[in-house]
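User: Hey, my collaborator sent me this sequence without any context and asked if I could get a structure. I don't really work with proteins. Can you help?
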Amino acid sequence: MRIYWPDQNILQALSGSNIQLILDVPRENLQSIASDPSAAHDWVQNNIVAFSGVSFRYIAVGNELIPEHPDLAQFILPAMQNIQGAINAAGLQSQIKVSTAVSGNALGQSYPPSAGAFASDSMGSIVQFLASNEAPLLFNVYPYFAYKGNSAQISLDYALFTSNSPVVHDGPFDYQNLFDAMVDAAYAALEKVGGSNVRIVVSESGWPSAGGFAASVDNARTYNQNLIGHVSQGTPRRPGSGIEAYIFAMFNEDQKDGEETERNFGLFYPNKQPVYPISFT
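Assistant: No problem. I've predicted the 3D structure and written it out in structure-token form, which is a compact way to encode the shape of the chain:
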């Protein structure tokens, strides 16, 4: 699972469950943690160490802040360093990895995938941190938004994993789905800044079931079911090694702001009834 702030009730519910967890550092804590190692220590003690029954996997220091929030981007690396120091002090560095989550907007170029490159210079030092700590880059991957933004050139089949043949030819690599192309563009970007050994974890991916362009139960179920079936295969650039991926989201966020589709990415309604059937096996 992934949760976006350390909700104490959720952490208590997960205790003893063996459900592995990505826990985000909320953006409102970022500046204090970046500037003060003791604030990072307190955050780790209160939200990680205090819940010894929870199987923490990654700490995401910020979600989609580069390049979306340039006022906060400067705090990401020092906050990661201070959280890492607190994790080390607690003796948890082999168990919990510290990263940050970025969207496709972090790439200044993504087509063809081999041309993938980060838009911001700040990503280079973050990638060096990840490489030195053997931590992955958390990458939010949404073929839905790419398709919505360019449906004249991107086919629905390519976005939903339902194309019968390769659509994009990129040197030695053929792409039959947009998800692989997006992930491999990020791998190409990592390679250009010394991150060849940094793994990508897909920290969000999904498709809305209602509320707007191409948002339907059929499309959402097709995308997420095919995603589940696909990730074990890796990508053309990283074949054979499965991709750790997280479906966004468990619940429809009925109180979320923004477009109607933003409230309809869930596998379940807020009343816990499934929006559509899906199998994780």
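In plain terms: The CA atoms of residues 106 and 118 lie 6 Å apart. You can pass these tokens on to your collaborator as they are.
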